[in-house]
Each structure stands twice: as C-alpha cells, then as structure tokens.
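INFO worker-7 received task bundle
INFO bundle size: 2
INFO processing item 0
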Amino acid sequence: MKLAQAIVALKAELARSYNGAAHFYEVMPLEPSNILPIDASILSLLRRFAECNPIYSRFCDLSVLGIPCRIYEGDINEYWLGSIKHDTSYQAFYPTWILSAYALVDKAKSLGFGQVVDIGSGDGRISYCAQAAGMRACGIEIDEGLVELQGRISQKTGVAHDTRRADATRFDYSSLGLKNPAFFISAMPEMGEMLANSVISRVLSMPGMQGAGFVFMGSHTPKKYSRDHLQWGWGSVIKSHRLEVLATVTLPTQWTADQEMDTPYVFTRRDF
C-alpha cells in the first residue's frame, strides 16, 4: 500500500474506533508496520514534533489497524485567532496532520525536488518534516505568533529549519539560493488565488531559476469553475502559469478528520 493510501486507511479506521471529544486531534504510529512502513527514526521525530508543540495538550494510546498508535489531542484557537487578523486573502492557521505533512514532502522528494518552501507555514510542520526527510526547508509565515511558535518547537526538538516572518506576496525568493524547489501553497483555492498568483509570478521571474514545483491543496467538493477535477479548483492558476500537473495525492487534514473524503494536493512543475 502506498504511503498516502495507508494514512487515509488509518484515518478511516480511527474515525470508527476513536471516541474522544477533542475537536482537534491526529494519530501517530508508535512503531513501523507493514501497513505504514515509515522508518522508526522518522516516526520518533514526528512524535517529537507533537510532544514539543504546545497546541497538543494530551494524548492516549490506541491500536488502529493493528498498529500501536498515539492519538494527540489539542486546541489551536489561540493561534487561529492570531492568524485571522491578517488580510482575508491569507489562509487562517488550520494545519494538516503531521503524518500527512511527511507524506507530502516524501512525495516531493520522490518527484525529484530538493528543497521545500512552505508558504503560510503555520507551526512549521511541513518544513520540519522536510528537514526530517533530508531536504532543505524554509517556511514563510506572516503571523508573528506562529513564527515564534516555530522557533520554540525547533529549539526543543533540535530540528532546525529556515523560518522567515514575511508577506509571501512581497518576499524576495532569490535570497534563499533556491535550486529545484517545491513551493507548498498553504491556502484553499476559494481564497488563495491571489496569494498563489503573486508567489508563482515572483518565483518564475527570478533570474537563473531552472525549474520550480508548486503544490496546491484543494477540495473534492465539485466547483463550478473547475472543469478538470484533477486540478481541484486550481485550474485557472495552473493554466495561466503553464504548469504541468505531475500528481495528485489525497491525505487527511484537520478539517476532514470527521469526513469520508480527504484533501487532495496537486503537484505541479514549471520547467524553463
């Protein structure tokens, strides 16, 4: 079973067996298995992220699909409220699962990307997972509280990644010394088109850029503006920037934890 499919299966079983009352929770295996063959050292780092992140306040252990797992419960209201004070074109803080973040960077690595730039990096979980996977990572985050949170987690875990407090629509990406990067656009298509178009235009105009990938998160809910459901609402952005669709990966997120459908991520590339 592929990694993303295994995580979706884990989530589906968790929905049947977990009776917790927390509105914010996620699952993490305690050891590798045939179903979810993530190396033990990586799993340890992923659990370390949760243990050092103050949005998680408690946990319980549970067997899911026959795998010993830990269920982390928490509350993101403090950071969510801080993040919504910014312009409405920016996504409020509502993170994906840590397991899903790792699967995303693992997919980016398998597609040949060497660096990850997370736009709207929140608590830094995608950047953290990229570093754990051996990739160079940078997070761009406009909210001061979330940038400080990333710093505290990095200090406690010992997994350091580059974090910049900046408006991603104005940031100078040439300052990062990028080569074959994958940019994760952490916004839904309904509100993220301006952000995506600004970031992509700035990246594609950089002198010497040989190639760049852009990863979009979408929705399986059909949209009138999306003729091609493989693009999940980002069709106009993909077309206008002449991006090649490489793959679509579906994974659990916090907002799909109690739903049958999960969140599609579209991997694209623009070569020069």
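INFO item 0 finished
INFO processing item 1
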Amino acid sequence: MIDYDGRRFRNPDNDDGVIARYHQQGDLVWADFAGGRIRRGIVNGTCDAEGVLRIGYTMVLQDGEVISGFARSEPEHTDAGLRLREEWERFGPNAASGISYLEEVC
C-alpha cells in the first residue's frame, strides 16, 4: 500500500496555486485544498493494497457554488514522483465526468 500521509499534489494543467495535502491512517485517506477559485475543498476516502484511492469530494467556489462528486485515483510512478490518474464524476446541476492527473509536489 502507498502511504499518502503528508504528500501534496497539484493539477499540472492548472496554474491556480491549488495544492491538496493528503493524510492517511490505515486505509482511511483524506485531503484538504484551497486556492484560485476554490475557497475550500475536502476529500475523504479509502486506499486499497495497490494504492488506488476511492474518494468523495466537496468544494466551495469563490462565487459560493458547492460542487461534489466521486473519483477513483490510480497511482502511477514517474521519474518526478507519484502521479494520480483520476477518473472523476461531478454530481448536481453541472454534472460532468472526465479524467485528470495530479502530480506530487516535492
């Protein structure tokens, strides 16, 4: 199992300053993030033996909009560190789905 405790990740396709700081106890994983147009965001989920995360997330944007969803994040090892391939789904009036990547910030 990958230990996510203390690791930080960012989306390399967005230069908005948002960095998520992860925490872990056993298979329980959580993170918090803010910056750019995100006032506050939080992630809660679990990590399996291969390091795959299954997480739910919520965030409050600067305009007050609340967004929630689910993601499955699969770790990939690169020369620069750990990268997460996220398959995500957003719920609600602006429902969407897609794939994004988070890169570890060392």
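INFO item 1 finished
INFO post-check item 1: The domain at 8-105 is CATH 2.40.128 (Lipocalin).
INFO post-check item 1: The radius of gyration is 13 Å.
INFO worker-7 idle
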